[in-house]
Write a structure and sequence with these properties.
single chain, 692 residues, 7-stranded mixed sheet, 18 helices, binds 2-acetamido-2-deoxy-beta-D-glucopyranose
């Protein structure tokens, strides 16, 4: 068998969380066989056919014949990395896993970095690969009017099928592929077996990243118009891996990996994945980054509770959604004339005149039991799913259920005292004909108190009125991952030689950590609070600043291998975890030290990509309880000195089992600021369960 030097890792395809729809999927096959992913690290042969042959050599040895091997393989990964997805019995998978391994640290070494580097002819012709539900080519956003020829380096293809003809590809949509293997026939029979989008999510993401639309005419480069238009001149390559089901789009990791592998071969510059891959299956993305492709992932729709950010591997850009207008005042007038300004996330009140009062009905936890039989006719239902002792429960009915209950019962409104961040697109439908207001739990608590305290003196005639802007419908400006993909494409067009790490650095160091009025960003959650770097990461993206960041924290993509090894956890998932070398030594545009027991020293290196003769001064915002020293505090750049390394020493001031504290290091020159966040936690013990 020809697999002597291969290292291999197995995983069963795991659950995919899809942006906006949050639908679960497990790719599965026949009776006892399941889809397994075998990851073999770098491609070790010159030609993709030879890579595939090596996979079959390996499998045929196990399964008995080449035919069986061919029949069991669902995807071969042969361009960006080597491996395959195959239908295997658990016993066969176990045998594969027992093949001799090379140490994990070798797994990703010797990457052919630079070999397939994309050519230096970007102009506006940056190619964004969108891995999603496909695309709807009839949308005006994808008109190819005025576009030049398809970039000659493009090697992708236009895969035809039902509802998708060869003419659906154009100078705008330059490639389209789909990945149906491993998806059940039941799902496939309700979908077009082609790149056609049966859901709409992929079309939305593609047009957000690179829709031509109206911006094309007024597009004058990065400084202007970028924030709204994504990259209107970029080309789109479609990789359909998610399939429409009654519960929303579903897909499998095997198909996503195949899409990434193909996209690396095809020659995309940016990969946009608005989907979540649990278990940090980001080795595909790592190979893409090592070929110079910037990979932009969504952080997922979970939250606002802590530790819900997904796709956090340091080689990708992880994008969380934000609302640019963080609050939208909705004045709620109670029957006692008290006015409460709620921070509504959405509301729509049809036929509700400015001062009409309605009876309130409070169903505290809003359980199904509580509501059963409750007459809400003409009333406004208030759901306050929080406990008096301060502990907070998840509402026992969901917002869609509550709104349906109100609509069915002839109610006139719903006040839902909990933030929810994945319903915005549906709310218009759910609240059709009724007034819907999301308020934060504090406001909900005040309404609850009013309900109980005032009820004794003023009977049950509590009211909710609306005034002022209550009737306006707010349009959200949400930065999502496709949006950032568009901005990355523009950065690539302007700076074709920047590495994915340099692009990520430019975005992070120039991000705004206050809103457009200079006010702190607030974190969504149960009780609103000023956001910390765990909430906003780098901050709110500032496209104009990112185009001219001054300094960048660059990383040779081979460096990632020193810090992360991709291994199997519990034989089920591939995970790229930290090696013994702490990740804070990686030259990231942030510093996070989770266990600060004694003083540590680390280094960062900055490269001047701005004015050749520049002098930057350090501005250190220290952390509570931790002394931070930066040395030197002045960096002088000129034609000979474009790169400088500085030292950061962090010393805990107390022996404490503490929480995280935050600070920052900002390099300043005139009005230019290059800021990175710093987070540390003082610890005494090695094993500390964070139960805060
Ligand atoms: C896409 O292809 C389908 C099927 O061939 C065709 O009906 C449709 O008009 C095409 N759309 C565009 C925008 O070319
Ligand atoms: C509502 O209550 C009635 C009477 O107690 C019961 O028969 C019915 O099953 C309940 N409905 C729901 C949806 O729980």
């Amino acid at each position: 068998m020809g697999f002597s030097s291969s290292s291999r890792r197995l995983c069963v395809p795991s659950v995919l969380l899809v942006c906006l729809s949050m639908i679960l999927c497990r790719a599965q096959g026949g009776s006892s066989r399941k889809l397994y992913i075998v990851y073999l690290g770098d491609v070790k042969h010159d030609h993709p056919d030879h890579v595939v042959a090596s996979h079959h050599d390996m499998l045929a040895g196990l399964l008995g014949s080449k035919e069986e091997s061919v029949a069991s393989v669902v995807y071969n990964y042969k361009h960006g990395f080597s491996g395959f997805a195959a239908m295997l019995t658990p016993e066969q998978a176990k045998q594969l896993a027992e093949f001799p391994d090379t140490p994990a640290s070798e797994l990703l070494h010797g990457t052919n970095y630079g070999e397939d580097c994309v050519q230096n002819n970007y102009g506006d012709d940056v190619i964004i690969g969108v891995v999603d539900t496909g695309i709807w080519p009839e949308s005006r956003s994808f008109s190819d009017k005025g576009y030049g020829p398809i970039p000659s380096r493009w090697k992708g293809k236009c895969q035809v099928g039902p509802d998708w003809g060869i003419n659906n590809c154009s100078r705008k949509i330059i490639g389209a592929r789909f990945y149906s293997a491993g998806i059940s026939d039941e799902i496939l029979k309700t979908n077009s077996l082609s790149p056609r989008d049966n859901h709409g999510h992929g079309t939305h993401c593609a047009s957000t990243a690179a829709g031509s639309a109206v911006e094309a005419a007024s597009f004058h480069g990065l400084a202007k118009g970028v924030a709204r238009g994504g990259a209107p001149r970029a080309r789109i390559a479609v990789y359909k891996t998610l399939w429409e089901t009654p519960r929303g789009p579903q897909g499998g990791i095997a198909g996503v990996l195949a899409a990434i592998d193909d996209a690396i071969y095809d020659g995309v510059d940016v990969l946009s994945l608005s989907l979540g891959v649990p278990g940090e299956n980001s080795f595909g993305a790592l190979h893409a980054v090592q070929k110079g492709i910037t990979v932009v992932y969504t952080a997922g729709n979970n939250g606002p509770i802590p530790q819900t950010v997904g796709n956090t591997s340091p080689w990708v850009i992880t994008v969380a959604a934000t609302k640019v207008d963080r609050s939208f005042p909705t004045v709620i007038t109670l029957g006692n004339k008290q006015q409460i300004v709620g921070q509504s996330l959405y509301y729509q009140a049809k036929n509700s005149s400015g001062s009409s009062f309605r009876d309130l009905i409070l169903a505290e936890l809003c359980t199904t039991d509580e509501l059963n039989g409750t007459d809400v006719s003409g009333m406004i239902l208030v759901c306050v799913p929080s406990r008096r002792d301060g502990s907070v429960l998840t509402p026992l009915i969901t917002f869609p259920q509550a709104s349906q209950y109100v609509r069915n019962g002839g109610g006139s409104g719903l006040i839902f005292a909990q933030y929810t961040n994945d319903l915005l697109s549906e709310t218009a439908k759910l609240c059709n004909g009724i007034a819907c207001v999301f308020v934060d739990p504090d406001t909900g608590e005040r309404i609850r108190k009013y309900y109980f305290l005032d009820a004794t003196s003023s009977t049950w005639s509590q009211h909710l009125g609306s005034c002022g802007r209550f009737l306006q419908v707010h349009v959200w400006d949400v930065y999502g991952s496709p949006h950032v993909s568009g901005i990355v494409a523009l950065l690539k067009a302007q700076h074709p030689h920047w590495s994915p790490a340099a692009i990520k650095s430019a975005i992070i160091t120039t991000a705004h950590i206050t809103d457009e009025r200079g006010m702190p960003i607030l974190a969504e959650g149960l009780s609103r609070k000023t956001a910390d770097p765990f909430d906003y990461g780098g901050g709110n993206i500032n496209p104009g600043g990112a185009a001219d960041p001054g300094l960048v924290y660059d990383i040779d993509p081979r460096e990632y291998n020193k810090f992360f090894g991709c291994t199997i956890i519990r034989r089920t998932t591939v995970s790229c975890d930290e090696t013994t070398l702490p990740a804070y030594h990686l030259n990231l545009p942030s510093i996070a030290v989770p266990e600060l027991r004694r003083p540590i020293t680390l280094w960062r290196t900055v490269t001047n990509v701005g004015k050749v003769d520049s002098v930057y001064h350090a501005q250190v915002q220290s952390l509570t309880g931790v002394r931070m020293e930066v040395e030197p505090i002045v960096l002088v750049f000129d034609a000979m000195n474009k790169v400088h390394t500085f030292k950061v020493k962090l010393s805990p001031m107390w022996k404490l089992q503490g929480d995280y504290t935050f600070g920052s290091i900002t390099w300043r020159m005139e009005h230019k600021t290059v800021r990175i966040p710093v987070a540390t936690r003082m610890t005494i013990h090695d094993f500390y369960a964070d139960v805060a």
